[in-house]
Amino acid sequence: MIQRQIKGRFAPSPSGRMHLGNLFSALLAWLSARSAGGDLVLRVEDLDPDRCRAEYAAQLADDLRWLGLDWDEGYERGGERGPYLQSLRTGSYAEAFRRLEARGLVYPCYCTRAERLAASAPHRSDGQSLYPGKCRDLTETERRRLEAEGRRPAWRVRVPDEDWAFTDGHMGRCTRNLLRDCGDFIIRRSDGVYAYQLAVAADDAAMGVTQVVRGRDLLDSTPRQLYLYRLLGLTPPEFFHVPLLTAPDGRRLSKRERDLDMGALRRRFTPAELTGLLAHLAGLLDRPEPVAARELAPHFSWDKVPRTDIAVEAV
Ligand code: GLU
Ligand code: ZN
What we know:
Elements: E1 7-10, H1 20-34, E2 39-42, H2 54-66, E3 73-74, H3 90-102, E4 106-109, H4 113-119, H5 140-148, E5 154-157, E6 163-168, E7 172-177, H6 178-182, E8 185-188, H7 196-206, E9 211-215, H8 222-232, E10 238-242, E11 245-246, H9 262-268, H10 271-281, H11 293-296, E12 310-311
Parallel strand pairs: 1-2, 2-3, 9-10, 11-12
Antiparallel strand pairs: 4-5, 5-8, 6-7
Helix pairs in contact: 1-10, 7-8
Bound molecules: glutamic acid and zinc ion.
Zinc ion (ZN) is lined by residues 109-111, 134-135.
Binding site for L-glutamate: 9-13, 45, 196, 214
Binding site for ATP: 255
Pfam families: tRNA-synt_1c
């Protein structure tokens, strides 16, 4: 069998400064690819114009470089599979959307946010709401009436009542029911912006990505993305979901923790100190001692990385 050359990626959203959790995923994505002699892509996921800013993209590229995490292709480097800003790739999302639409796999959903929240039961595993399928079977007349009221629809993919099993490279075997756990999901918002699920699957396939390393919070998105790969006839990458970093009380670290964002971290640590800290959290070093990312690569193994969330004591 011919082994495909490994290609990993970073796919950050430029919606703020990166924080410790983003760096943790980025370091593992880098190590996973580099330890196998693979390449890396940096793709900037700036689809949401309300949340994303160009300065943040420049900043996150600078922050990755500061930490010693380089990439072969992508933002600020270019490459054959560009552009590497999602905001410049809407033509390819529109094309994927049209292919799904032509096969009757999507439908317009006219629900307002308030209606969706009122109608849905809280979802069991990730606290997100599950779409109850209100607009699934609207007639043409009903659609026209809603359009006449001035409502602009979001577009959803219709999912079957099917158990979907996949093997995560780090978390192992996972099974989700597409209908009960995911529900019909949005691929184009009512303002015309293509949704993350569609864009990420289209891009990873178009860029030839063979492995996706990202936070466990996106594990529940994986069956949705795998379903899109199937519908679009694309080859999926392998997925590795990494544990989340939490505060000592179990809360997830987020961009709100200003003392753990890259601005603060770069003032307090050298790149080697911060890498050592992340490597220690990842189970790659016994103690948080200074180290360069490239020194970790030869010893990297997924077996050393914890599978449950990691509480970060005072940093
Ligand atoms: N852009 C997403 C984020 O920053 C990550 C997408 C992915 O890794 O699939 O949360
Ligand atoms: Zn609806």
